[in-house]
Design a protein that fits this description.
alpha/beta, single chain, Rossmann fold, Quinone Oxidoreductase, Chain A, domain 1
């Protein structure tokens, strides 16, 4: 069974929101926007809940699709899209800037309620890039894939069977090329990606240490997820010394989700020909603090390979990732960590909480049930 933390806010019944206008059925549609660009740590006051209406019909000949959103993925990279300017914004479509008052899009699972596109029918379940709203008007290009009936909960397709899972799988296996008995360090190991990296590493037979921001998370890593060791980075005055304590013979693989001082300390403790997969740099997303400056001497003489990556780089291994991860789920070899809140109203606090370390595992917003 998945480990879920569920915070229930009201989920309105659809029937109470429907009304007719000019012969067309309309529904109220709540959605979230930013009030202004966000340059530092986000606050709930940076966001605004708006209410509009959407007609549950499409014009004759249109290929528009109307989707009722069921689950919305909360991902920290969106903060870089909310800035006035970020070097990430021009690199890939997923990183396109978000402007004040503009609807925010991201990974969403929804159900088709109306379709002018012959490829999608009413009641199809779809995963795509839709708005942070109760309903989304989309084109075929917004849809990543149709979700067929599955033995797993729909929400898994936003986390362990989605881009977070692919990031963990591809970053670890494809980039780091780990071997059994190697020493692996994972930062933000209770996050949506980090917890999976650690579990994959243990299944391979590696020695795994993770760090997290609370003693509760440290115990979860060791007792529930099977990490060999874990530590609370907030209790460590010297990260370099902390890593020497857990890796007296050095680190073979470091899976980086934070950047900053943690990356510096990891590089200082790497073994010869160590590999570093840089999945995220959350410590550098929310302020002008000191950026990571790992020792270039260490990198050169230890021949350390450091590589940044995006899940989109590895769509060619998605089928392999999905098959293996599904098998691990069926046999109970992988534990699922989900942290679920409910209702569009909960989006601001859920998103802000990502930067406080509030979430355990994948943070998801539940808007409506599948039926």
């Amino acid at each position: 069974m998945p480990l879920r933390s569920i915070n229930f806010v009201s989920i309105e019944k659809e029937s109470s929101k429907k009304r007719k206008k000019g012969g067309k059925m309309e529904v109220k549609n709540k959605y979230i926007v930013i009030k202004h660009h966000i340059e530092d740590a986000p606050r709930e006051s940076n966001f605004e809940l708006k209410t509009g209406t959407i007609a549950l019909s499409v014009a004759p000949g249109s290929d528009d699709i109307i989707v009722k959103n069921l689950y919305i993925s909360m991902d920290p990279y969106h903060i870089n899209r909310m800035k006035f300017s970020s070097s990430s914004q021009g690199t890939i479509s997923f990183a396109a800037p978000i402007h004040p008052g503009q609807t925010i899009d991201g990974a969403v699972i929804g159900k088709v309620v109306v379709s002018g596109n012959s490829k999608f029918q009413k009641d199809d379940l779809v995963l795509g890039v839709f708005t942070w709203a109760e309903y989304s008007l989309v084109k075929e290009g917004n849809i990543i894939k149709r979700l067929e009936s599955s033995e797993f909960p729909l929400s898994y397709h936003l986390g362990i069977l989605g881009f977070n899972g692919l990031s963990a799988y591809a970053g670890f296996f494809e980039l780091c090329k780990p071997l059994k008995d190697e020493k692996v360090f994972v930062s933000t190991a209770c996050g949506a990606v980090g917890n999976l990296v650690g579990q994959y590493a243990k299944l391979l037979g590696c020695y795994v240490v993770g760090c997290a921001g609370s003693n509760k998370k440290v115990e979860l890593l060791k007792q529930t997820l099977g990490f060999d060791e874990a530590f609370n980075y907030n209790e460590e005055k010297d990260l370099n010394s902390a890593l020497k304590r857990y890796f007296p013979d050095g680190i073979d693989v470091y899976f980086d989700n934070v950047g900053g001082e943690m990356l510096e300390a990891a590089v200082a403790n790497m073994r010869l020909f160590g590999r570093v997969a840089v999945c995220g740099v959350i410590s550098e997303y929310t302020g002008p603090g000191r950026k990571a400056a790992p020792s270039m001497l260490e990198i050169v003489y230890k021949r350390i390979n450091i590589r940044g990556f995006l899940a989109a780089d590895f769509l060619h291994v998605f089928e392999d990732f999905s098959a293996k991860t599904s098998d691990y789920l069926r046999t109970g070899k992988l534990k699922v960590l989900e942290d679920i809140s409910s209702g569009v109203e909960s989006i601001p606090s859920a998103f802000v909480g990502l930067f406080r370390g509030d979430n355990i595992g994948k943070k998801i917003i539940n808007l409506a049930e599948e039926s």
